[in-house]
């Protein structure tokens, strides 16, 4: 099974820049999309209901902003679109599904780069998401992926020193990510590529950063212990970032047994219980 996460930086713009060409090259079984910035009805039929795919959209209430989607080659069951039934999410930042016996979560955590108010929103999301991950790190096989907007170590950012006080690389954000790993979650790209610089998944539009590969690794695919034995490889597709978005698609491959349906255990932690 191949799973890909991709912040497309606006679905309508991505379509004009070659989204489908790169999707065909990557050929995932499950695709997690962030920052779609569109309501489904604003998209052409081949995107709203693409042939050969099962699709779930979770747009933001605000037009042209945020939003997530999951595309799957196999039927999937929607489990939820927020961390808690008590806390609505008007920004469309999360989708959880069951597919082929695996729980898959697409998440787009807020950026705090626009100022203190949005950093406060981000910090609240980090706190709530950490509580959610604590409840899900064992038991049902689960992967979450998306634009997490946090680079963990100096290996995950080209200009580490000059960004120590920049949202996405703040000390408390890096500590948050480290605690995720210590609690039992696996950073699959880092585990596969080892102790090296990058591979980066996002680049600024300034200063030829994409061309020179001076980026950040903020797009992640993470799994719990139940999935880790099936993990085989991880790839960042930089070419798609050069053509389509400021983010690259990130792909993992699993030797996952095709169960042909949803896991019965997936009812654990369903939205109605959180």
Helix and strand topology:
Elements: E1 2-7, H1 11-17, H2 19-26, E2 30-34, H3 45-48, E3 54-58, E4 68-72, E5 77-80, E6 94-99, E7 102-108, H4 116-136, E8 142-147, H5 171-182, E9 186-187, H6 188-193, H7 209-212, E10 219-223, E11 231-236, H8 238-243, E12 250-254
Parallel strand pairs: 1-2, 7-8
Antiparallel strand pairs: 1-12, 2-4, 3-4, 5-6, 6-7, 8-10, 9-10, 11-12
Briefly characterize the structure.
This protein is an alpha+beta fold and 274 residues long. The chain contains eight helices and twelve strands.
Describe the structure.
This protein is α+β, with helices and mostly antiparallel strands and 274 residues long. The chain has helices spanning 11-17, 19-26, 45-48, 116-136, 171-182, 188-193, 209-212, 238-243, and strands spanning 2-7, 30-34, 54-58, 68-72, 77-80, 94-99, 102-108, 142-147, 186-187, 219-223, 231-236, 250-254. It has a single domain (2-263), classed as 4-Layer Sandwich (Deoxyribonuclease I, Chain A), CATH 3.60.10.10. 25% of the residues lie in helices and 23% in strands. β7, α4 and β8 form a beta-alpha-beta unit. The two termini are 28 Å apart. Residues 261-274 have low confidence and may be disordered.
Largest sheet: 6 strands, mixed
Give the amount of beta strand, in percent.
Answer: 15-25%
Under the CATH scheme, which architecture would be assigned?
Answer: 4-Layer Sandwich
Q: What is the chain-wise order of helices and strands?
A: EHHEHEEEEEHEHEHHEEHE
Overall mean pLDDT stands at: 92
List unreliable stretches of 5+ residues: 261-274
Q: What form results from the Cα inertia axes?
A: globular
Derived from helix and strand composition plus strand pairing, the structural class reads: alpha+beta
Between the first and last Cα atoms, what is the distance in angstroms?
28 Å
Share of helical residues: 10-25%
**CATH superfamily name?**
Endonuclease/exonuclease/phosphatase
Radius of gyration: 17 Å
